[in-house]
């Protein structure tokens, strides 16, 4: 009886595949060919997700090398480095600029939002594909183009731009202000403009998918928190990147068409008066940070979603306060749009405006604390499964708290006046955005690796990677608080030859550099694990983490060939149906301790 | 034992899902009055219905245009900030370099042309959703929607081209009066706002051309509806943006 039914289902599936791939009846399904072209120009969301992750792997490697060069130059200014030679002060500024741009745009925006959302979002909400697959592929290739243009800035005459990832005018608006401010800066503008358009297309796609493509029963209150965070982050992309695009346009006009949007009256650069208009650099700051602050949340919100999901999974408990968690995701996104002024306390902004921005900034601590409470509440009670993804998720919580606690401090205009241009701020945003963001990316990669390759990543290597990374991350970025409190300014290319007070910080900075090397070296473990596990790793069982969310459902229901090629569209997804909330963990009377969202044979809720 | 065959799962006829469903894509809305009761939680959000694909593209174009609006909002806020900027000279006089300028009157004509084009594109769009015509095409009895919509779309393209040409004339007139791009912050903004809007309108003209081609080329009425519908919404939005931007340029400088 059951054999009959299985045979019947198998037959149906074959017929379905025939229809899907437009095969002649009875012919063999096409084997995956060795030609890489169809793989590259694919519109399948999961492949695009992997492509995004690989892109950010390239960008993070480049950005890390740049940061190591900076660390070496800061403490051993006399050392000549291979490929870089003797680092001049302007080279140091170029390194700062390119490091920041690569990391913020091409790693922290690309991997958590575009990468992971393409990898699992459609399956998580029961859609068969993204709403606009072709636009999705277009968005990815535009991102590649943007990265290529940015890296090409190293090769143009004058070298890479030197005005920081924030590109503050008036110096960024004057092409002759420095060696990289000519063609290099134009390359930067072009690259970021392309990136804006690419992200814009990508987030339109994510929004249309989440709003319009959810399967039957997938009401908003049943959406996993990852989907919520991608929803909010995509909205932020839509709102903020458009503003950045307009600002880039204005800056381009200031540079090449003689306008003065950002150039103040009588601006005197490199021996010439550059402006006869009444432009204001503050206008750029407002436009830029209206983009720049939501950008921080674009980078970290997906990490929060991933962390919530993983903590629930590996502690086998539902997320504590699930409706509150989705509400705080939205609230953080909304508040993130009205706090941009806290980047400008020392820029000559009206002090009353500063007070308003201080209040909104401190208000963000409320939903953030609610999130931390939920994470800790989910963790409390023990019985944790300390797998590698779980460790990275806990590491995210730790870094989020450590980096977040300095947020309300920097939100005070009075304190920020002293701390703003010091290493204190470097410590703050590297802990909360860079390291917390990186930990959530690691958690996601370790967790969803079976979906990409059908294999699990090596646990021992993964745990070693985690502990080394955690210790080195704190070792690198935590002492920067003390350097900042002691008054060491950021963006200075060397400490030798400055005041004795700053030179006294050299030993501290040397220790930071050592830890930075450990941090970078630990990533070779990750790289080795990635390659080895993709080729030789343990085969993943179906639903290896016993998760409730539906990205694993395709592995459960399909034929074993899904493991050789997880990238093929599973047949059964077109009629996915959802019966319950996203995190139904906890022991049940039938002995299981989880129940999938799409599992029908149980009473709902 | 007699072979009893009981299916454990419900079998539905599977087919390649184009997202369209089997019903004709007519513009008939479900009856009002909440026939489904309070079953909203289990309702299908992505409906396998006649207009699913259309709704998907409408959603996408709506989000894209919302993002685009933020682009113009940024330009407008820069306009106000730049207008309020000034400096205090040696004699303690407050000096602003913002000089108002009189707009070429042809802009009013252009505005009227653009409003008219919005009207034509809307009429053209509605031709694609007349139930009786859609049913006729659905059964393959002819292409009445193509016949009816084409003249309206051509009229839209002509009016849109007229608008862009009119903008070009306005720039020429300002040039002849000595207002160049970098003459004055006010003229900066005038050229930039009209220029970026004209660029968007050129994209809109491409979209109308694409819609005209797709009326001929696309095999399915659903796809033709999408092409024309999305073009129309884009066009309307550009019209609304222009009214807003022109109001700013005419009354707020």
Keywords:
heterodimer, A: mainly alpha, Cytochrome C Oxidase, Chain A, two-stranded antiparallel sheet, 4 strands, 1% strand, globular, disordered N terminus, B: mainly alpha, Four Helix Bundle (Hemerythrin (Met), subunit A), two-stranded antiparallel ribbon, 6 helices, elongated
Which regions of chain B are unreliable across 5 or more consecutive residues at pLDDT < 50?
12-19, 29-47
Instruction: Please tell me the CATH architecture of one domain in chain B by its name.
Output: Up-down Bundle
- Give the number of DSSP strands of chain B: 2
Named CATH topology of one domain in chain B: Four Helix Bundle (Hemerythrin (Met), subunit A)
Protein chains sharing the most extensive interface: A-B, 62 and 54 residues
Q: What is the H/E order of chain A?
A: HHHEEHHHHEEHHHHHHHHHHHHH
Roughly how many Å apart are the termini of chain A? 32 Å
> What name goes with the CATH superfamily of one domain in chain B?
Cytochrome c oxidase, subunit III, four-helix bundle
**What is the helix content of chain B?**
55-70%
Beta fraction of chain B:
under 5%
Category from helices, strands and their pairing of chain B = mainly alpha
Radius of gyration of chain B: 25 Å
Largest sheet of chain B: 2 strands, antiparallel
Shape of chain A from CA axes?
A: globular
Description:
The complex is a heterodimer of chains A (about 600) and B (about 250). Mean pLDDT of chain A is about 85; it is low at about 1-5, about 10-15, about 15-30 and about 560-575. Helices cover about 65% and strands about 0% of the residues of chain A. Chain A is built from 20 helices and four strands. In chain A, the strands form two sheets. Chain A has a two-stranded antiparallel ribbon with strand order 1-2. Chain A has two domains: about 1-30; about 30-575, Cytochrome c oxidase-like, subunit I domain (Cytochrome C Oxidase, Chain A), CATH 1.20.210.10. Chain A is globular. Chain A has helices at about 1-20, 35-40, 45-75, 90-125, 135-150, 185-210, 225-255, 280-315, 320-335, 350-380, 390-405, 405-410, 415-420, 425-455, 460-475, 480-485, 500-505, 505-535, 555, 560-565, and strands at about 80, 85, 270, 270-275. In chain A, helix 11 (about 390-405) runs parallel beside helix 15 (about 460-475). Chain B has a domain at about 55-80 and about 105-250: Four Helix Bundle (Hemerythrin (Met), subunit A), CATH 1.20.120. In chain B, strand 1 and strand 2 form a beta hairpin. In chain B, helix 2 (about 105-125) runs antiparallel to helix 4, helix 2 runs antiparallel to helix 6 and helix 5 runs antiparallel to helix 6. The radius of gyration of chain B is 25 Å and the shape is elongated. Chain B starts with about 50 loop residues before the first helix and ends with a helix. Residues about 10-20 and about 30-45 of chain B have low confidence and may be disordered. At the A-B interface, helix 1, helix 6, helix 7 and helix 8 of A face helix 1 and helix 5 of B.
